[in-house]
Amino acid sequence: MNILVINGPNLNFLGIREPEKYGKLTLEKINDKILKKARGYNYNIEFFQSNHEGDLVDKIQEVYGKVDYIVINPGALTHYSIAIRDALLSVQIKTIEVHLSNVYTREEFRHKSVISDIVIGKITGFGYYGYLMALDFIQNEENLM
Which residues are the active-site ones (predicted)? Predict the structure, then answer.
């Protein structure tokens, strides 16, 4: 099982940026937790983070036919990136949307996601554990097949 974990703008500043909303763990530490969980399921994990929309689109296109799932936290691009939406639609890879904070308890503009209607599901508000929940879902979905 090959899984790509994508993190968008400003997620490289986790642990520094608003820790009361996003937690105190760095992205590197979160990735370590994801990797540990993934090893338990014998998943191959690739991580990618960029602050640039085009880089995220390029990465999604690059993994066409190479990964089974994408777990994505598009950051602020969640709310307006039609380019990311179109890339996900183009590659037809099963995708899970993850957000560290509960976007529905925040500013109104954060309530809208342009990818929520095309992904398997959306996990929001559980901090880094949302990524682990996505892996658990993948494991359960694969066992049902």
Answer: 22 (proton acceptor), 99 (proton donor)
- Any known ligand binding at 77? no
* Residue range(s) defining the domain that contains residue 12: 2-144
Mind listing the pLDDT tens digit for each residue in 58-101?
Answer: 999 999 999 999 999 999 999 999 999 999 999 999 999 999 98
Q: Is 128 a catalytic residue?
A: no
Q: Model's pTM, two decimal places?
A: 0.94
| Whether residue 22 lies in the annotated active site | yes
Alpha carbon 79 to its chain centroid, in Å, reads: 14
CATH number at residue 29: 3.40.50.9100
The Cα–Cα gap between 33 and 15 comes to 15
